[in-house]
UniProtKB/TrEMBL annotation:
Known pathway: Protein modification; protein ubiquitination
Annotated ranges, domain Mind bomb SH3 repeat: 14-76
Taxonomic source organism: Octopus bimaculoides
InterPro entries registered for this protein in UniProt: SH3_15 (IPR040847)
A single MF term (Gene Ontology): zinc ion binding
Pfam families reported in the protein's UniProt record: SH3_15 (PF18346)
Name recorded for this polypeptide: Mind bomb SH3 repeat domain-containing protein
PANTHER family listed in its UniProt record: E3 UBIQUITIN-PROTEIN LIGASE MIB2 (PTHR24202), E3 UBIQUITIN-PROTEIN LIGASE MIB2-RELATED (PTHR24202:SF4)
GO CC field: cytoplasm
Length: 81
């Protein structure tokens, strides 16, 4: 019997923010939803986890700009508020 490890680092409704610079984020987004130019302005901004794909990619909601963006989970960090 094999060990099953969850790929989920985050839970829905948790607060997160991008923890890498723009150049690193562009590279990390390849194969993880792609790059969206709006992401540059959202680095360091707090959003909430809206959903998580089976791959572990995280859909983050940014209410201020009414946007849902998919991120590589390794580019995100939890925010305690």
């Amino acid at each position: 019997m094999g060990l099953i490890v969850s790929r989920r680092k985050f839970k829905e409704d948790e607060l997160v923010k991008v923890n890498v610079d723009v150049d690193m984020l562009k590279m990390m987004q390849k194969g993880h939803g792609g790059w969206d130019p709006r992401m540059e302005d959202l680095i360091g901004q707090v959003g909430s986890v809206h959903g998580i794909y089976p791959s572990g990619d995280v859909v983050v909601e940014y209410r201020e700009i009414r946007a849902y963006l998919t991120f590589n989970p390794d580019a995100l960090t939890k925010v305690n508020q």
